[in-house]
């Protein structure tokens, strides 16, 4: 990618952050992980082509042009929060995604309560995903593993943290988080 493409991508991601609250790549990756989807299935539920979804995720395109797609994104964010806090089962989520796929809607994507449970506290899964996202925005998984290996002889707990959150699966990180809460 040349400098002009990098600048264009960075500009698109900043526009996405201002319009949607975060870059669409991060939002869509979270939906994929939380709802157990792949990119093709997410594109299908949203009513986008797979190439369009990819362009939005990579920052090659900044804006979702179809208002109904924007509402489906909002509905999936709400559903993702309900799955994360356990109020909706995986089977129910599959049925709800079919309903969302058929829905029409408005053009505003608003912040949701997806990051909190019924008591207003962040869900464990959401906290873990934020930690993973932060670590992965700083370094690639291989670099995080290299750092963990370097720390392991003197700081084994910190090395484990880096491995689990920086390069592990979300389910493993959730288990680690829950095991280390007092």
From TrEMBL:
Keywords recorded for this protein, A-Z: DNA-binding
Keyword Thylakoid found: no
Region ranges (Disordered): 101-121
Polar residues: compositionally biased ranges: 104-121
Gene3D superfamilies xref list: lambda repressor-like DNA-binding domains
Domain of life: Bacteria
GO molecular function: DNA binding
SUPFAM superfamilies: lambda repressor-like DNA-binding domains
Record-given protein name: DNA-binding protein
Source organism of the structure: Streptomyces corynorhini
């Amino acid at each position: 990618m040349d400098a002009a493409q990098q600048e264009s991508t960075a500009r698109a991601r900043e526009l996405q952050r201002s319009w949607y609250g975060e870059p669409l790549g991060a939002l869509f990756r979270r939906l994929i992980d939380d709802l157990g989807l792949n990119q093709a299935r997410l594109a299908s539920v949203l009513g986008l082509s797979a190439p369009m979804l990819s362009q939005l995720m990579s920052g090659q395109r900044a804006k979702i042009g179809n208002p109904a797609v924007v509402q489906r994104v909002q509905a999936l964010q709400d559903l993702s929060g309900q799955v994360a806090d356990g109020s909706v089962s995986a089977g129910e989520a599959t049925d709800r995604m079919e309903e969302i796929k058929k829905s029409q809607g408005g053009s505003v994507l608003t912040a949701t309560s997806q990051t909190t449970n019924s008591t207003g506290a962040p869900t464990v899964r959401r906290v873990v995903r934020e930690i993973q996202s932060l670590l992965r925005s700083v370094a690639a998984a291989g670099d995080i593993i290299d750092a963990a290996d370097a720390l392991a002889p003197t700081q084994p707990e910190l090395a484990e943290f880096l491995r689990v959150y920086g390069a592990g699966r979300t389910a493993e990180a959730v288990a680690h988080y829950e095991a280390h809460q007092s």
